[in-house]
Amino acid sequence: MEDLLKVAVIIFIMAAAAWEFAVGRGRDGRRTKKDWQMAILATFMMAVVQRPILAIAVSVLLSGIFPSSAGSLAWLQQEYFWAALIAYFCIEEFLHGGSHYFSHMKRPKNKALQWIQAFYKMSHRPHHLSGGPDNKGQVTVLQTFINGWAWWFILPNFWFQITCLYLGLTEVFIIATVFKGLWAAHTHVNWNYDLYFLNHKNKWVRNIMWGLCHIITFPTQHHQHHSRGKNSAKNVTATLAIYDWLIFKTMAIETSKPEIYGWRQSEDEANSVFKRYFNTNVKKYMPGR
Ligand SMILES: [Zn+2]
Ligand SMILES: [Zn+2]
Predict the structure, then answer these.
(1) How many whole angstroms from 38 Cα to the centroid of ligand 1?
(2) Domain residue limits, the chain
């Protein structure tokens, strides 16, 4: 069942990539060969290396600390399915948004926290590298699962996901993960349909969309997160913009696409996907570097 639903996300990404190709949304430097290579490398590593390691680590840890805890929360989803699903989704997204926010926020004063943040910055950086040095790059659906090698191990929401799965919240985990995967993929597609509503000539249409953007993360909000400039530290949530609005204070609703996408790349990053993905130079992200 889990595999079947994983396939749904992969099929969506492939279909969206084919659509982008067909209508020319990957053309003229919007998407480069390196973007393809990064997407294949990161998605392969996620499915074959990182997720399985995470699953083994969680089950070894939990079966060691709390023997016979496997499946012990299955009753929760049997008796209160919708409540369990909503609670799971809100907690998972909060942990995800919070740690993503930590990777982008102002540097903390504490030295140990600075090192931790530097590690997060190093791991997250590849997600913000798209297109080539000509600055014509944009964001396409291929960017969805691109991050550095360590990202899957350091984000608390991934530990939370696998822990819930281990404790027996199987259906809750699957439905939430697939829904979130599809939503995150759709906010990366090079199709800013939300701008049609945000710029609509009818005031009511504009206002309703404006309101919805306070609750849910739409493509242009996430595209703005991929911009170069001040908005790249905004809109840190994948699905629930209400956290950006009310908790992190990082909401940015714009009525156009970013002018420039992606952070400036070093020569190494521009030339090698392996240098992007297997980066281990934490020091580079410490103050004064
Ligand atoms: Zn980011
Ligand atoms: Zn993104």
Answers:
(1) 16
(2) 1-187, 192-259
Taking the centre of ligand 1 as the mean of its atom positions, its distance from the CA of residue 71, in whole angstroms, is 34
Reading the block at residue 129, the tokens are 């590298």
Helix or strand run (H / E) with residue 99: helix 81-104
Tokens for 28, please give them: 């003229």
Rounded distance from Cα 165 to ligand 2 centre (Å): 25
Which two three-digit tokens encode residue 29? 């430097």
What's the CA gap between 285 and 130, in Å, rounded?
19
Which ligand is in closest contact with the Cα of 124?
Answer: 1
Residues 42 and 21: their CA atoms lie apart, in Å, by 20
pTM of this structure? 0.95
Q: How far is the CA of 238 from the centre of ligand 1 (A)?
A: 10
Share of the chain above pLDDT 90, in %: 91
d(CA 246, ligand 2 centre) in Å:
21
Q: Which bound ligand lies closest to the C-alpha atom of 223?
A: 2
Which whole-number Å values give the CA distances from 128 to 110, 123, 232, in the listed order? 26, 11, 9
- Rounded CA-CA distance 186/64 in Å is 39
Structure tokens at 128: 């913000």
Q: What is the pLDDT of residues 171-211, one digit of tens each?
A: 999 999 999 999 999 999 999 999 999 999 999 999 999 99
Report pLDDT digits (tens) over 82-115: 999 999 999 999 999 999 999 999 999 999 999 9
277 C-alpha vs ligand 2 centroid, how far in Å? Answer: 16
- Encode pLDDT of 228-239 as tens digits: 999 999 999 999
Among 219, 256, 63, residue whose Cα is nearest residue 144? 219
- Going from the Cα of 138 to the center of ligand 1, the distance in angstroms, rounded, reads 15
Q: For residue 104, give the ligand nearest its CA.
A: 1
Residue 127 Cα to ligand 2 midpoint, Å, equals 6
Q: Which ligand is nearest to the CA of 188?
A: 2
